């Protein structure tokens, strides 16, 4: 019988006051840590729930709208605290999450989009992987989707920032690489306007992928459109755009926690103030050394991530804390980047395999119909591929 899946728990101390001198002002929250290729939907949900509740309770004027829900979260928190030094098993996490779900749906059964039993039976998907379908126009997810319901049932917002800018082209590389259609007088600006029009028509990532799989061997216009879409997806493969960040800033209030989907990962994001975003660090590598254990947040203020910095629990830059050596900072940063790159590479391989299977099936169907067609043009290496059941952050 295989060993059971377990998760480490880390007690983080944090504050909104930029001052860690008074321990009484610190909020103590247990968070679930993620190992390499770990189940980030489950971790993001639990951590966002714990941090949101602790933030509310820290406010002197806060009165719970539902005391039973608040008590249930506090009970779950006590369970996590009991495993601060001993890892907690997946089955136990799911059991208590299921109990919490029953409490959250107690007074709102008529408003649920799915039956309670269906939601309970779907909780393991938070570990094995969720199917998500982001809308690349409004930065949201379909509220009818199961993945969205698994977050909203716990009163959590589920957002992303992978949105096309319908007015200004944010990619300076577009004019260099996205060549106009051969034999056409269309300009780079016309091509970008065409992509915007296509995205407004298709809206969601799944519909865009369906469009990319259409046979374009005898349709030059379709082939050109597919090339343009591939180019935009490739240039924005971090799944975050400047306009997407602006939309997040508009739809979220200050001092709010949400579940963020980016780079095929689910994470806990905190909007501290206007245009000030932080992502919770959950890598187990940040639990080991004395210096890295102080790192709780990473700023989210750039599309590439190159300008993002690490921060302590009270939102102070790590390099200003106890004058930590630059070498240690670099080591921790590079380790996190390495884990991210390894997981992204594994995910890319799974997505490529899914696309290849779809391509083979399409070619076989064409042969059966005795309609000879040239092989479809291969898509860019880093562009997203069709995957009807996108199991993101799956342990491999």
Automatic annotation (TrEMBL):
One Pfam family it belongs to: MINDY_DUB
Swiss-Prot/TrEMBL GO biological process terms: protein K48-linked deubiquitination
Residues of the signal peptide: none
Basic and acidic residues: compositionally biased ranges: 356-370
InterPro entries hit by this protein: MINDY, MINDY_domain
GO cellular component: cell periphery; cytosol
Domain of life: Eukaryota
UniProt biased composition (Basic residues): 384-396
Residue ranges occupied by any MINDY deubiquitinase domain in the UniProt entry: 7-315
GO molecular function, one term: cysteine-type deubiquitinase activity
Region named Disordered: 356-396
PANTHER family, per the entry: NF-E2 INDUCIBLE PROTEIN (PTHR18063), UBIQUITIN CARBOXYL-TERMINAL HYDROLASE (PTHR18063:SF6)
UniProt-recorded name of the protein: MINDY deubiquitinase domain-containing protein
Protein source organism: Spathaspora passalidarum (strain NRRL Y-27907 / 11-Y1)
Species lineage: Eukaryota, Fungi, Dikarya, Ascomycota, Saccharomycotina
């Amino acid at each position: 019988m295989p060993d059971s899946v377990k998760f480490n728990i880390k007690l983080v101390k944090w504050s909104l006051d930029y001052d860690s001198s008074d321990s009484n002002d610190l909020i103590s929250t247990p968070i679930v840590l993620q190992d390499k290729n770990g189940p980030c939907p489950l971790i993001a949900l639990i951590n966002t729930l714990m941090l949101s509740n602790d933030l509310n309770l820290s406010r002197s004027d806060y009165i719970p709208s539902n005391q039973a829900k608040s008590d249930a979260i506090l009970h779950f928190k006590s369970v996590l605290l009991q495993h601060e030094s001993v890892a907690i098993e997946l089955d136990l996490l799911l059991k208590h999450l299921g109990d919490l779900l029953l409490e959250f749906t107690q007074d709102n059964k008529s408003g649920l989009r799915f039956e309670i039993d269906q939601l309970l039976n779907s909780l393991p998907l938070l570990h094995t992987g969720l199917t998500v379908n982001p809308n690349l126009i409004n930065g949201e997810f379909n509220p009818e989707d199961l993945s969205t319901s698994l977050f909203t049932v716990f009163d959590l917002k589920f957002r992303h920032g992978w949105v096309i800018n319908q007015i200004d082209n944010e990619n300076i590389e577009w004019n260099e690489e996205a060549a106009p259609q051969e034999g056409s007088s269309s300009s780079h600006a016309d091509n970008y306007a065409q992509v915007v029009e296509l995205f407004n028509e298709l809206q969601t990532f799944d519909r865009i992928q369906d469009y990319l799989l259409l046979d374009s061997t005898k349709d030059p216009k379709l082939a050109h459109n597919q090339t343009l879409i591939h180019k935009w997806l490739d240039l924005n493969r971090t799944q975050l755009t400047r306009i997407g960040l602006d939309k997040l800033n508009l739809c979220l209030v200050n001092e709010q926690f949400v579940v963020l989907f980016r780079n095929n990962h689910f994470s806990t994001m905190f909007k501290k103030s206007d245009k000030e975003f932080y992502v919770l660090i959950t890598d187990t590598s940040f639990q080991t050394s004395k210096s890295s254990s102080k790192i709780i947040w990473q700023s989210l203020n750039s599309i590439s991530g190159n300008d993002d910095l690490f921060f302590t629990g009270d939102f102070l830059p790590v390099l200003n804390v106890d004058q930590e050596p630059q070498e240690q900072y670099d080591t921790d940063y590079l380790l996190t980047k390495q884990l991210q790159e390894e997981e992204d590479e594994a995910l890319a391989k799974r997505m490529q395999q899914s696309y290849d299977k779809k391509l083979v099936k399409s070619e076989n169907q064409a042969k059966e119909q005795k309609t000879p067609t040239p092989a479809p043009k291969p898509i860019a290496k880093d562009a997203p591929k069709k995957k009807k059941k996108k199991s993101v952050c799956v342990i491999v």
